[in-house]
């Protein structure tokens, strides 16, 4: 049951990331600043299309890696996973929820990265300092989800012992 909420969050995060990326892409100049280093050139620059396709490629790779184990568990193609998390086991639902929500957290993190690129390239409208909270939120969310995974594994190990 819970994994359906994780799936909804995951698919919603995909839509939000793609919307944000396309919106920011349409507002960027031909050269995009990706580094605010103090130098005579004004920071690192990259082409708008290179950044866009790079972020899309990174997005696809991360999503395939994050969702592949959940899809293997759902479709029962990996017998060892299916033996550890059989149908009806509450930890099966928890682990599926974790994988889908982790994919959603990765997508939200990528959306925040796109927001960062937009903020440093649109200095007159948005100050990048205004979004510092969101930039520190990325590692906090990732660490919290990894701790949650270990908590699931500890719970499953206790269940298997008894």
Automatic annotation (TrEMBL):
Transmembrane segments: 9-26, 51-73, 94-118, 130-154
Domain of life: Bacteria
Keywords per UniProt: Membrane, Transmembrane, Transmembrane helix
Protein name in the entry: DNA topoisomerase IV
């Amino acid at each position: 049951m819970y994994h359906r909420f994780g799936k909804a969050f995951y698919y919603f995060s995909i839509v939000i990331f793609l919307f944000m990326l396309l919106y920011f892409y349409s507002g960027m100049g031909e050269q995009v600043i990706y580094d605010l280093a103090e130098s005579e050139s004004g920071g690192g620059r990259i082409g708008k299309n290179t950044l866009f396709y790079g972020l899309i490629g990174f997005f696809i790779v991360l999503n395939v890696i994050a969702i592949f184990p959940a899809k293997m568990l759902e479709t029962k193609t990996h017998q060892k996973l299916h033996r550890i998390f059989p149908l009806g086991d509450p930890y099966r639902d928890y682990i599926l929820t974790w994988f889908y929500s982790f994919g959603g957290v990765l997508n939200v993190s990528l959306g925040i990265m796109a927001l960062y690129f937009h903020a440093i390239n649109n200095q007159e409208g948005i100050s990048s300092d205004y979004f510092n909270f969101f930039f520190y939120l990325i590692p906090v969310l990732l660490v919290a989800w990894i701790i949650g995974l270990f908590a699931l594994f500890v719970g499953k190990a206790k269940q298997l012992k008894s």
